[in-house]
Amino acid sequence: MLREPKVLLFLFGAFWSTFAADALGDWWKDTFIYQIYPRSFKDSNGDGVGDLNGITSKLEHLVDIGVSTAWLSPIFVSPMVDFGYDIANFTDIDPIFGTLKDFERLTAKAKTLGLKVVLDFVPNHSSDKHPSFQKSIQRIKPYDEYYVWKDGKIVNGTRQPPNNWLSGFQGSAWEWNAQRGQYYLHQFAVGQPDLNYRSAALRKEMENVLAFWIARGADGFRIDAIALLFEDEGLRDEPVIPNTGLPPTDSGNLEHIYTRDLPEVYEVLKSWRKSVDVLGGDKKILLTEAYTTIPLAMKYYESGGIPMNFVFITNLTGSSKNRDFKRNIDRWLSSMPRGSYAANWVVGNHDNHRAASRFGRNRADQLSMLAGVLPGVGIIYNGDEIGMEDTSLTWDQTVDPAGCNAGPNKYSQYSRDPERTPYQWDNTISAGFSESNRTWLPVNPNYKTLNLLRQKMTVTSHYAVFKKLVGLKKLPVMKTGTAEVILMENNILGVVRRLPDASPVVLLINFSDINVVVDASTWLNVPEELNVYVVSVGVDIAAGTRVNATAFKIPPAASVILV
Ligand code: NOJ
Question: Residue 456 half-sphere exposure, CB side, CA atoms within 13 Å?
């Protein structure tokens, strides 16, 4: 008697989890999400820094390339120590970017264009200029517990930080505050004190931030540094990793067992999922930023988020082989929990060197093409769609705290400025980014030839390749077909998407720098004749060419999609 309802429940559960995605509107599935770094996208008022009105004026570009979503890096009130990731007011726009009215106009236009807008939510820390931090210093309740404070250790009569934890931007993660007479934790810059998620009042306040932006049209959030929300209550020293070869101030010398990935993190995410779900409207996306192991990343799915998949950034380089890609792709796909979750593939972001620089100019399209053919969501960084490259900058031009704190001899190993220079719209002054020729970071000198306008007027371009990838994602075979990643002879990788009664979609990547002839038909079990759908820039095969898949010549470093 008792078993039947259970079986029914189970069947319903299984049905629900596969059905839930689209019925409840997982609108992000099988689309590309486009990250906009607001300071560098488009400057509307000639001050050399990008702004909201600039973004609004360029939303047509997102429609043109076919992405579903604009994710905006932080636009909130900030002293800009970490260029917006140090927030002094979570519910207002920084004047450098505009006003709440400007944001309203941006979301209104995005809605009419059918674009979703995702905001950056930075819950781990605030700016030291946030009024709550000032009140915390004065021990005013409940703010006294909003941050992580601790007495110093007295060693041989001198005061020292409470433990050995290191900041992501070099040196101790603790800063002495004379007024309060305690150290505060900052896992990033000194101006970014860590918030204390063991304070219920703080948690409530941060939940209100989510509701505030949803009421103003946000379709979800990218959640910054979520893995760092909690620290060990005993504040124990982290184990030191021997012989890293890193400077002693580098946090890479520690095993982060007490400052990252604590189980409470997932509970907080679940509570955020609940609190955004009750607000109604379209389903909200919660993309979590955690550079962590695959098993720990997967727990974000089960907690209501989508863990950003960084394997293309952290695990693979321009010298990776076909088997390295297969291992990483398969591991992610086979680790995903059952149910209707979306895989995702991050091509680039504002914290890592540009895809075209990491993988080399002749492989600039490789990651986007993989993100296009693999199941799920592609996440690209503004400029990746035109193959923008890193800009090399001198020490004097460096502004990123990660670079500045490393000093003049090491800055280039840490600075994120090279991937943050202005978007290259055309070949006019400041690449069409600003009317001013003084921009917050210099424009890459290659803008005269590498820019969107020029690519729009050229038949073969990164821009044209990207647009075709977006089109591909709309095919039923891409939405529900199987995905196989196959190691082929001579360092070729094959990816095949199949669906009964549909033509397979095949991606072939040549990981060597010589021509390779392959029998793709046999290796991949696909028809002997296929059509070229799109090729990476630099490959001289026209789209639409009918090819013999039993002896197909793949040029050096090429990526080719056949259907
Ligand atoms: C991750 C962000 O992407 C990065 O730019 C920032 O510096 C840190 N989190 C701190 O917020």
Answer: 10
Radius of gyration for the alpha carbons in the chain, expressed in angstroms and rounded? 24
CB 118 within 8 A of CB 219: yes
Backbone phi, psi, residue 552, to 5°: -100, 125
SS3 state of residue 285? strand
- Kindly give the distance from the C-alpha atom of residue 149 to the centroid of ligand 1, in angstroms, as a whole number: 22
Distance CA 121, CA 214 (A): 12
Domains in the chain, please, with CATH?
29-126+200-466 (3.20.20.80), 131-185 (3.90.400.10)
pLDDT at residue 511, rounded to an integer: 98
- CA of residue 224 to ligand 1 center, whole Å: 7
- Whether 170 contacts 405, CB under 8 Å: yes
Asked if pLDDT for residue 18 goes beyond 50, the answer is: no
The whole-angstrom separation of Cα 503 and Cα 477 is 8
In angstroms, the CA 352 to CA 24 distance is 34
Residue nearest to atom 11 of ligand 1 (CA): 85
Residue given tokens 């982290």 in the structure block: 238
Question: Is ligand 1 within 6 A of the CB of residue 81?
Answer: no
- Nearest-angstrom CA–CA distance, 552 and 447: 35
Q: Report the alpha-carbon distance of residue 196 to residue 552 in Å, rounded.
A: 58
Nearest CA owner, ligand 1 atom 4: 351
Within 410-529, where are the H helices?
411-414, 452-456, 462-473, 476-480, 520-524
Pick the residue whose CA is nearest to atom 3 on ligand 1.
351
Cα dihedral 365, 370, 373, 378 sign: negative
225 lines ligand 1 (CB under 6 A): yes
Residue minimizing CA distance to atom 10 of ligand 1: 85
C-beta neighbour count of 110 within 10 angstroms: 21
Q: CA 516, CA 554: separation in Å to the nearest integer?
A: 5
Whether the Cβ atoms of residue 102 and residue 151 lie closer than 8 Å to each other: no
- The average pLDDT across 304-321 equals 98
What separation in Å is there between the alpha carbon of 532 and the centre of ligand 1? 40
How many Å apart are CA 397 and CA 441, to the nearest integer?
7
Q: Tokens for 271? A: 């509570």
Ligand 1 proximity of 224 Cβ (cutoff 6 Å) = yes
Confidence of residue 4 (pLDDT cuts 50, 70, 90): very low
Q: Which residue has the tokens 């630099």?
A: 538
Q: Using CA atoms, how far apart are residues 494 and 248, in angstroms rounded to an integer?
A: 43
Q: Which of 40, 78, 85 to mutate to test the pocket of ligand 1 (most atoms within 8 A of CB)?
A: 85
Nearest residue (by CA) to ligand 1, atom 5, is 351
**Does any ligand 1 atom lie closer than 6 A to the CB of residue 85?**
yes
pLDDT digit string, tens, across residues 348-407:
999 999 999 999 999 999 999 999 999 999 999 999 999 999 999 999 999 999 999 999
Cβ(82) to ligand 1 under 6 A?
Answer: yes
Query: Residue 340 has what pLDDT?
Result: 81
Name residue, tokens 């392959």: 518
Catalytic residue numbers read 224, 289
Q: Percent of the chain having pLDDT more than 90?
A: 95
